[in-house]
Design a protein that fits this description.
It comes from Janibacter limosus. The chain is an alpha+beta fold and about 210 residues long. It has 6 helices and 11 strands.
Length: about 210
């Protein structure tokens, strides 16, 4: 699984209904592009949104799907609408995720933390986060995939790292919240992150698939 997307704030003069329009356009892209599983689009209620109160996330089979996704004729139209109507946008682009055997879901919930790592903390901290999150995938059927590592889009500075958790809706997210290592993950993340930006898509929202 590969995750690609953006968190953004709407400009004060943004067109009405712009988020719904983008969702509809990307819905066409999803349905007509092999390997694109879901495209959640909608409000971002994360406490770490920092003014980026909307988001788009594309869940695809792997990174090879990114080029056909971008090549779809509706994708540039959606991108142009976003560029004309948003501010404070930040990109998200993971590497390959650690996934469960089954990643089927009708409505995924995607929880993302983008951040600049604290340079006083060694890489072993994020390695421990990764270990605990992989255990959550193995232990919790509702946790579909996780990623800890470089945020590889050129639109990310200074938030060069990200932690991504994909669950089977709210139920899968609650299952993750109850995992025995959840408190330790939160403790480690508090120690390592600077300038965090959060994105939480999957609750009451518009979706393109």
């Amino acid at each position: 699984m590969h995750v690609h997307g953006t968190a953004f704030g709407l400009a004060s003069d943004a067109e009405g209904g712009i988020v719904d329009t983008v969702a509809a356009l990307l819905g066409h892209v999803r349905s007509e592009t092999d390997g694109v599983r879901h495209v959640p689009v909608g409000p971002n209620p994360s406490k770490l949104a920092d003014g980026r109160d909307h988001g788009v996330v594309v869940l695809m089979d792997d990174e090879s799907v990114l080029e056909p996704y971008r090549a779809h004729p509706r994708h540039p139209e959606a991108g142009a609408l976003l560029r004309a109507n948003v501010e404070r946008g930040v990109g998200i682009d993971t590497g390959p995720m650690y996934t469960s055997e089954s990643t089927a879901t009708d409505r995924p919930r995607v929880h993302i933390t983008l951040f600049e790592p604290d340079q006083t903390v060694g890489p072993e901290v994020l390695e421990e986060v990764d270990t605990h999150l992989r255990a959550a995938v193995d232990d919790c059927p509702g946790v579909l995939g996780v990623y800890v590592g470089r945020n590889r889009t050129v639109h990310s500075p200074p938030v060069s790292e990200c932690v991504v958790i994909v669950t089977d809706g709210d139920r899968g997210f609650e299952e993750f919240q109850q995992h025995p290592q959840r408190a330790r993950i939160a403790e480690l993340m508090t120690a390592v992150v600077r300038q965090p930006i959060g994105l939480d898509l999957g609750r009451a929202q518009t979706s393109a698939g």
